[in-house]
Predict the structure.
Amino acid sequence: MTDRIKKSLLITLDFPPQNTGGVSAYYYNVCKNLPADQIVALAPQAPNAENFDKQQRFTIIRKNLLKQYPETWPNKLFGLIKIIATIRWLSIIKHFGQTIKNHKIELLQIGQVLPLGTLALAYKKVPYIIYAHGLDILLPQHYLRKKTLLKNIIKNAKGLVANSNFTKDELLKLGADPKKIVVAYPCPNIKPTPASQTEIDKIVEREKLKNKKMLQCEECHRYIIMD
């Protein structure tokens, strides 16, 4: 008997239609490939988000999770900025807990280990998993406070999804339990089934790839064209 899929809340700073970057697409496909009634996405407000959200089978909740303040503001306003940021963060925590309660969430999926991992760490009632990307893990290590928080978030996570073996190694250096780590390489989700030989032949002809050398990735089975 297989384990039942727990109802999850994915919280992320990157999600369509906000941008079309790799991280945004990565999390969108995570949601799209889970049962629609078992996943809820909590993402920032974005232009045209209402129309986009109506087209999805799963639930999307929009909230301006973080505010990016202009770096050119005078230094004398720095204290005020910190106060405003703290008030916003407390508001986010309240909304976060209410969302978990309203949707009967059993598992948290955290898109950015910092700052969003702090929400999962603070909300101890629900277990969480972390999606780990290289820079998300490397950059905080330049600051002692952030590195300490990073290690604490990693230690208390139920699971860790690394986007590469490099990221896995970095997680291990930070004290992660190797049994909790799964490496999931980001791959384009273009078609649900492999291309037929007829389709491949058409691409080779159209892109003038005849007699070109191609390498196939053992992990995702995609091809790299060599000159």
